[in-house]
Write a structure and sequence with these properties.
By secondary structure, the chain is mainly alpha-helical. Among the domains are: 103 residues, Receptor-associated Protein (Up-down Bundle); 65 residues, no CATH class. 81% of the residues lie in helices and 0% in strands. The longest helix is centred in the N-terminal third of the chain and has 48 residues. The protein is elongated and about 75 Å long. About 7% of the residues have low confidence.
């Protein structure tokens, strides 16, 4: 038991760090929800006062209107940069779910450390983190694909609203109010940001940094040019919508042609992991006997390295662009 004490202390410290990060994400989400609720209430109040006093300026129509013009107080700079770097807002995962998954992974790592030593526990923890990162990447990829499918319909609605005489900001807010998730949530964030800064191009550029979609950057450039220099934004947006539809059609054809290659890559990449996991679960004595041998550990590390290299190679071969 004393030989496993350093591993237990390391895993407990990692558990504390992950739980602290999960609690910070949860508190940040609660603060954002509360801020959005207050902002929506103020917007409804200002809309009612605007209808009652049509000729009165917005900044005098409500005593709390300046609160909408003040940006939210930023949190710690390091945590904000980490959140932007990881693109946490694009995950669509509740902080409570992340905390539960982290606790389950740490429990499995502690059990493995007690059975096979500190190194095995750290390897299992690294495997859990790798699988978690893969799951988050897969979820974000699916959400991005769904957003791209919803984007042309939103642009068509935006073009129709612009063609009947609405301003760009009003048309954007009207068109984004009826868009389903996940694109609707992203557009709602942009609409909420317009109450602080009226620059629609800057808000779309921030959305591009959050989701990593170049189509949002293209829309940001269109909105920025239309705001600064004017012109027919509806015609440009109509062409952008046609371009996105043509690109999606070409990507669907390419995916259909490469379906066999991608399925083979998935099977070849997951088969060794599934077989190794089944052996570790069903015959622990066989694996521990190999793990406690020096040459067996070298073979396990070599197999893990070859598995990672082969998975990356097959991913690169199956990723056709």
């Amino acid at each position: 038991m004393t030989s496993h004490l350093p591993a237990i202390l390391v895993l407990c410290s990692l558990a504390c760090v992950l739980l602290a990060l999960a609690l910070w994400l949860w508190s940040s989400a609660r603060r954002q929800q509360a801020r959005q609720a207050v902002q929506s209430t103020l917007e409804r109040s200002l809309e009612i006062r605007r209808e009652q006093h049509a000729g009165e300026p917005l900044h005098l129509s409500h005593p709390m209107a300046p609160a909408l013009a003040r940006p939210a107080q930023p949190g710690p700079q390091g945590l904000r940069r980490l959140k932007q770097l990881l693109r946490y807002r694009a995950w669509g995962v509740a902080p409570r779910t992340l905390a539960l998954l982290a606790a389950a992974a740490l429990a499995l790592a502690l059990l493995a450390a007690l059975q096979g030593g500190a190194l095995l526990g750290l390897m299992l923890l690294a495997l859990c983190l790798l699988l978690g990162a893969f799951g988050i990447w897969l979820r974000v990829s699916r959400r991005r694909a769904k957003m791209l499918l919803q984007l042309p319909a939103f642009l068509d609605n935006l073009v129709r609203l612009l063609s009947i005489g609405n301003s760009l900001h009003a048309a954007f807010q009207f068109a984004g109010s009826n868009v389903p998730q996940p694109l609707g949530g992203a557009l709602a964030e942009v609409s909420a940001g317009l109450n602080v800064s009226p620059d629609l191009g800057q808000a779309m550029a921030q959305l591009e940094r959050t989701w990593g979609l170049p189509e949002f950057g293209l829309l940001a450039a269109v909105f920025r040019m239309s705001t600064r220099y004017g012109g027919r934004a509806d015609m440009v947006l109509e062409r952008v919508s046609s371009y996105i539809r043509d690109r999606q059609s070409a990507e669907r054809e390419l995916r259909a042609m490469s379906a066999e290659v991608r399925m083979s890559a998935w099977i070849l990449a997951l088969l060794p992991i599934v077989v190794g996991g089944m052996i570790m679960l069903l015959n622990q004595g066989y694996f521990l006997r190999m793990w406690n041998d020096a040459m067996g550990q070298k073979l396990v590390f070599a197999a893990a390295g070859l598995q990672v290299f082969g998975s990356l190679l097959m991913y690169r071969l199956a990723r056709l662009r």
